């Protein structure tokens, strides 16, 4: 049972709480923020209202610098993803995630290689077509020198195929471009291509994880998320999982941090969260405190290594 009021008798917000999204409308981060907003309000998890604030300018730098400049403000919470490691490296952004206050890791996001439903039916056919093409295949993605771009580079390195990476404002826009045949492929998160897959407009070729997605309920008439093979199974040995975490600005009080840890602990028990995790094919995880910090340090090191190998670290 989900508690209807904070367990802590201490601090709680009295002004609207702003969920800050470092991406454009329609992408996975925006969708997650809307789910959180609905779950918090529907289950009365706190008294203050919740608003979603999209700050995807400059590839998400707008959101990071906004959080950095909001020291001591406990009414702003960032939905963070691997951008927090990658953007400072690629753009020499004066931002370090250590300057913020970690609250919780709430999920891990998977990536899938997608093509148009009229395109190749398997990874092997897709790579052969890309190699045979007179011009590089167009790969759509969110932002430049970020997760989607890094994955594209590693697909190139593993296969010898050439891709022209086209950055868009969100995964939703990348999905639209693939449906319209303006690109040959994308590496969107499951949630970003869910509706166009269900509509039969795109095809999932493989998932970039060591194991298949666990959810077995049918998404389309014939397939579940679990039916999508791993890329390794298909001969493409590339793996990547993306962080989904929450942070407060720096220099908030321990009581304020504790309130939000408690809030998100309640949120992950709600039907809205559980339903969202399955529908969007996210990996459930919940980390706070020392466990979260250790995870972030390890994840930061891995992403830094990938960025260096891809040649995306600014000189």
Features:
315 residues; 6-stranded mixed β-sheet; 37% helix; globular; disordered N terminus
Structure characterization notes:
- There is one protein chain.
- Strand 1 (17-21), helix 1 and strand 2 (50-54) form a beta-alpha-beta unit.
- The strands form two sheets. The protein has a six-stranded mixed beta sheet, sandwiched between helices. A five-stranded mixed beta sheet has the order 7-6-8-5-9, with helices on both faces.
- It is globular and about 65 Å long.
- The protein is of the alpha/beta class.
- The protein has ten helices and eleven strands.
- The protein has helices at residues 28-42, 61-68, 83-91, 123-132, 147-159, 171-179, 190-198, 254-267, 271-279, 289-310, and strands at residues 17-21, 50-54, 76-80, 101-109, 112-116, 137-142, 163-168, 185-186, 202-207, 242-248, 283-287.
Can you lay out the helices and strands and say which pair or pack?
Elements: E1 17-21, H1 28-42, E2 50-54, H2 61-68, E3 76-80, H3 83-91, E4 101-109, E5 112-116, H4 123-132, E6 137-142, H5 147-159, E7 163-168, H6 171-179, E8 185-186, H7 190-198, E9 202-207, E10 242-248, H8 254-267, H9 271-279, E11 283-287, H10 289-310
Parallel strand pairs: 1-2, 1-3, 6-7, 6-8
Antiparallel strand pairs: 3-10, 4-10, 4-11, 5-8, 5-9
* Contiguous helical run count: 10
- Count every beta strand, where a strand is a DSSP E run of 2 or more residues: 11
Q: Enumerate the strands of the largest sheet in spatial order, edge to edge or round the barrel.
A: 2-1-3-10-4-11
What would the principal axes of the Cα set say about the shape? Answer: globular
Structural class: alpha/beta
Strand content: 15-25%
* Rg estimate, integer Å: 19 Å
* Biggest sheet descriptor: 6 strands, mixed
Mean residue pLDDT: 93
**String of helices and strands:** EHEHEHEEHEHEHEHEEHHEH
Could you list the spans in which at least 5 consecutive residues all have pLDDT below 50?
A: 1-8
